[in-house]
Input
Amino acid sequence: MTHVYRIGEVAARTGCSPESIRHYEKLGLLPPPQRGEQGYRHYDQAALERISFIRHGRNLGLDLHSIQELLALSDHPDTDCSSADDIASRHLAHLEARIAKLQALADELRQVVHQCRGGQSRRLPNHPNAV
Output
């Protein structure tokens, strides 16, 4: 017999709020759950794994559309995986741009730290985005 989980237990196990789980259902990221006698949603282990995948993807910065595409590929493993390559390529480009911006910020912070050493502030570097 497979174990079934109610939404609160799924939320606790996956770190995903019940509201988000319901939202993912509405978007079609999750199949409609089975319902118990009193109308409570019942999820199986596969649903927990799918929700965990969604949450992990969101934590990595993937948008829900990309996650939906990846789930569709997972649901149909015989399909062409070029869309997965496209998703990965787009995400990689986004991450590389973000890394470059973070590196520039780190360089600026190094200048501030260097100029503020010794307890006295010296003239800090001008920044085009300064207020």
